[in-house]
Amino acid sequence: MTHPQKPSSTPARPAEPAATSRRQVLKYGAGFGLALAWPGSKVIGANGDVRVGTVGVNGRGQSHMGAFSKMDGVRLTALCDVDPNVLDARVSKLSDSVDYAVNGFADIRDMLEKGDIDVLTCATPNHWHTLAGVWALQAGKDAYVEKPISHNVWEGRQLVKLARKLNRVCQGGTQSRSMGSIQAAVKWVQDGGLGKIKYVKGLCYKPRQSIGKGGGGEIPAGVNYDIWCGPKPIEEPLKRKRFHYDWHWFYAYGNGDMGNQGIHQMDVARWFLGEERIAPHTISIGGRLGYDDDGETPNTQIVYHDYDTAPLIFETRGLPKDKASQENNWGKNMNSPEEFPGESGISVVVVCEGGNVYVNAGGKVKVTDKDGKEMKAPEEFKTDDIFTNFMKAVKAGSSEGLYADCEKTHYSSALCHTGLISHRLGQGMHDGEVRERIKGDSLLADRYAAMADHLAQNEVNLDSETITLGPWLKFNPETEWFEGNDDLDAKANKLARPDYRDPYVVPEVG
Asked: How confident is the model at residue 48 (pLDDT cuts 50, 70, 90)?
């Protein structure tokens, strides 16, 4: 490793939760954070392999495990999760497939102190992403942080500053940037292959059914709930029925589907534009429509980012194409982009003077001319996958060549945040008033009309139900702060930099 070594900086620990199950004490010991070496594991030798630790192994973290455990010159030596049942299962399974020691940790701080790792990869819930990355960098580790790389605008910039200050490799989990087909399409468009870009649409037409009403879900037995909540206040009782995953639809922990699936398409859309900053003007129109449940974030939304190059429009639709489809497999009955009928609605459409480009989440690329006739797509570039790209940078001790350097993922994550901030500061209105307010922008009015038609197909009556029209928010891309919005500045900036719960505090980096 060629990085300069920095002294470890470990935050103080909170008091242990009063309620610790007998099983936890037996499993982890009274300290609840001790490393566990699974039986049959071998002691790691000083062979120069890069040692990786992954925190958050219930969902996306399993992809991290699959990638790093199979790489030459890499050892996945530590796993961390606050759910002991999940941790047991993952460590046991990994230990059966490798010939070295795999240690399990309930607390990320213990893993960073005692795990003997060189790299941390993070796949926790969103509200932990930045803090996990910051603690890893402070402890002298390189970091791979899943998307969105932040839970709010301000903290994403602190992670970037710290990576630069400490000269660490820090990659975001926006893996579409590793796809050779998309790399080739972006270059072709930016080289003028279809003329000037008129606008770009990022689409997240992904099925999201009701999560139910009444909350009151149970915290799984053995989970250290204090650590799970981390930077956010302790929420008891739970506002959701399902503990795992449904946190995505609550502002304290998630960023809605725009910041879940949609961050990938937001990133690709911004990449096509070549805009390396947060948009200077943003507006949101949307709501949680079609059912009444406990979720907070919009399931139907348009966010308009007014870039100088061209507008970036992001559309979220969680309902299927029509009401009948709600009774028969939402996943196979979602809308397609109007420009590319039959194709996936989890995609990006680049509308240019000379035609359109389509890119889906799997890297499929289609090109049509201005008359809708299909053209040959650019030849795919040869690339590494996102994890291999990251590990090459770690071994080289340099961020040069990273596909998704943390700053790139910060910009795209922030576009999700600013869109949700406009929504949260908005007012509920009926359809006619929304149309009247936005009629001066023909593109926005057109996209709203398409969204309203989609809702009508799902029998959502916008003359009786309200839809939230957010304010046009001015944002200074240089200071990364809302400026020029009169009394809304303080409210918007409070959402861009919320309070943290001690000791889980993201530090301000000078």
From this structure: confident
Identify the CA nearest to 125 among candidates 240, 38, 21: 240
Domain span including residue 76: 22-175
Task: Answer yes or no: are the C-beta atoms of 475 and 282 closer than 8 Å.
Answer: yes
Half-sphere exposure of residue 120: CA atoms within 13 angstroms, side-chain side? 32
DSSP 290: S
Question: Can you list the alpha helix ranges (DSSP code H) found in 82-128?
Answer: 84-97, 108-114
What are the DSSP calls for 138-169, one per residue? Answer: HTT-EEEEPSSS-SSHHHHHHHHHHHHHHT--
Beta-bridge partner residues of 51: 75
Looking up residue 131, the CATH number of its domain turns out to be: 3.40.50.720
Q: Is 342 left (phi over 0), alpha (psi -120 to 50) or beta?
A: left
Averaged pLDDT for residues 381-399 = 97
- Show Cβ contacts of residue 31 under 8 Å, excluding neighbours closer than 6 positions: none
In the chain the first and final C-alpha atoms are separated, in Å, by 26
- How large is the average pLDDT for residues 358-381? 98
Nearest C-alpha neighbor of 318 from the set 212, 208, 216: 208
Which is nearest to 50 in space by CA: 100, 118, 142? Answer: 118
With the C-alpha atoms ordered 91, 2, 60, 156, is the resulting torsion angle positive or negative?
positive
On whether the pTM is more than 0.90, the answer is yes
Full DSSP string of 162-208: HHHHHT--EEES-GGGG-HHHHHHHHHHHTTTTSSEEEEEEEEE---
Q: Is residue 508 part of a domain?
A: no
Residue 333 included in any domain: yes
8 Å CB contact between 344 and 360: yes
Adjacent-strand bridge partners of 315: 203, 302
Residues 336 and 484 reside in one and the same domain: yes
**Which H helix or E strand runs over 411?**
helix 406-424
Distance of alpha carbon 379 from the chain centroid? 29
- Whether 144 and 196 share a structural domain: no
Residues 6+ apart with CB under 8 A from 39: none
CATH of the domain at 245: 3.30.360.10
User: Number of folded domains in the chain?
Assistant: 2
